[in-house]
């Protein structure tokens, strides 16, 4: 079962189309990166999924249940963390979580255990008695994430969760999201920090001017953007003679589209399937190329984003 499905989802404001006919599928348990520049429609989409904004048209299905005509039902399935999360600064940390647990109607015994579990999960045990106003930006972000988890939602919608964080706090947030993924949560992260999403996401969706331009597993989106895969070939030595020999060996291989020089070896744009990829490695070895490492290059989502959206920029 898919965690999230939208069908022809559209939102208009006074003639402005913020989200345009968006049909999206997010598998259960996925960590889904929602990519786009500011103003692309990411926040509007997340607010509709969270039941906070009524679509102009289209359908939303969360965990198998249609919620378009009953947006209030989403609050029990979804935990939503907006890009700017207002907090009650004069509360203690534990009181803040306890307040929202009461809002969801958790009974006393369960509420106390949930607060303690969440404080431990977001590593704020030692700040339990501190006032919210005393917390750093990173700690507040983790507290707000704990707030989104008080009712144990199956789906988390996080709008720019690393916004404004220093490098250490971003690493801590990234590790926390990975832990939530291991717990089986479906997580949608909206961001324009593409390098971080590349490290975390199982799948991505690229949105520009309200239109979903591409979506699916990261490898598939990257391959479609490049019309094939990008192979990284690291060589035992990368002197001019060795590079020339490797280039010569690649020159007569079907499926090799283009060869690029990179530090330590070559990158090859390749259109062949898995069997052809294995054959390419065998071909290199048979021709005496000293291959040290052979595999798909790390996805560069910035390049992929620019490739996919270039036709949308006027």
What does this structure look like?
The protein is α/β, with parallel strands linked by helices. It has helices at 42-49, 74-77, 93-103, 108-121, 137-148, 167-182, 194-200, 218-226, 240-250, 274-286, 301-309; strands at residues 2-13, 16-27, 31-35, 57-62, 65-66, 78-81, 155-159, 186-191, 203-208, 211-217, 229-235, 256-262, 265-270, 291-296. The protein has a six-stranded mixed β-sheet, sandwiched between helices. Strands 2-1-4-5 form a four-stranded antiparallel β-sheet, covered by helices on one side. Strand 12 and strand 13 (265-270) form a beta hairpin. The chain is elongated and about 70 Å long. The two termini are 38 Å apart.
Keywords:
314 residues; alpha/beta
How can the largest sheet be summarized?
6 strands, mixed
Rg, alpha carbons: 23 Å
Taking pLDDT < 50 over at least 5 consecutive residues as the criterion, the unreliable ranges are none
- Note the total helix count: 11
Number of strands: 14
| DSSP helix fraction | 25-40%
What structural class results from the helix and strand content? alpha/beta
> How are the strands of the biggest sheet laid out side by side?
6-7-8-3-9-10
Strand content: 25-35%
Distance between the termini: 38 Å
Helix and strand string, N-terminal first?
EEEHEEHEHHHEHEHEEHEHEEHEH
Mean pLDDT over the full residue set: 88
Form type: elongated
Topology:
Elements: E1 2-13, E2 16-27, E3 31-35, H1 42-49, E4 57-62, E5 65-66, H2 74-77, E6 78-81, H3 93-103, H4 108-121, H5 137-148, E7 155-159, H6 167-182, E8 186-191, H7 194-200, E9 203-208, E10 211-217, H8 218-226, E11 229-235, H9 240-250, E12 256-262, E13 265-270, H10 274-286, E14 291-296, H11 301-309
Parallel strand pairs: 3-8, 3-9, 6-7, 7-8
Antiparallel strand pairs: 1-2, 1-4, 4-5, 9-10, 11-13, 11-14, 12-13
Helix pairs in contact: 3-4, 5-6, 8-11
């Amino acid at each position: 079962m898919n965690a999230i499905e939208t069908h022809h989802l559209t939102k208009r404001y006074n003639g402005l189309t913020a989200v345009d006919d968006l049909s999206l599928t997010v598998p259960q348990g996925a960590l889904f990166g929602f990519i786009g520049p500011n103003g692309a429609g990411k926040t509007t989409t997340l607010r509709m999924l969270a039941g906070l904004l009524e679509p102009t048209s289209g359908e939303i299905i969360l965990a198998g249940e249609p919620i378009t005509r009953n947006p209030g039902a989403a609050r029990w399935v979804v935990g939503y963390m907006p890009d700017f999360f207002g907090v009650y600064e004069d509360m203690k940390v534990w009181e803040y979580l306890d307040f929202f647990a009461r809002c969801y109607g958790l009974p006393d015994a369960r509420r106390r255990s949930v607060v303690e579990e969440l404080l431990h999960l977001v590593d704020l045990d030692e700040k339990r008695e501190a006032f919210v106003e005393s917390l750093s930006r990173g700690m507040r972000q983790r507290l707000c994430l704990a707030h989104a988890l008080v009712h144990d939602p199956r789906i988390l919608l996080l709008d720019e969760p690393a916004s404004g964080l220093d490098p250490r706090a971003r690493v801590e947030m990234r590790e926390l999201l990975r832990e939530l993924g291991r717990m089986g949560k479906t997580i949608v992260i909206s961001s324009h920090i593409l390098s971080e999403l590349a490290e975390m996401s199982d799948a991505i969706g690229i949105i520009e001017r309200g239109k979903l331009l591409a979506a699916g597993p990261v490898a598939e989106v990257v391959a479609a953007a490049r019309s094939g895969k990008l192979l990284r070939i690291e060589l035992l030595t990368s002197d001019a003679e060795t590079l020339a020999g490797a280039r010569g060996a690649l020159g007569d291989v079907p499926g090799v589209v283009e060869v690029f020089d990179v530090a330590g070896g070559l990158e090859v744009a390749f259109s062949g399937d898995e069997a052809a990829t294995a054959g390419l490695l065998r071909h290199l070895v048979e021709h005496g190329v000293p291959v040290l490492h052979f595999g798909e290059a790390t996805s560069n989502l910035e390049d992929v984003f620019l490739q996919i959206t270039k036709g949308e920029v006027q």
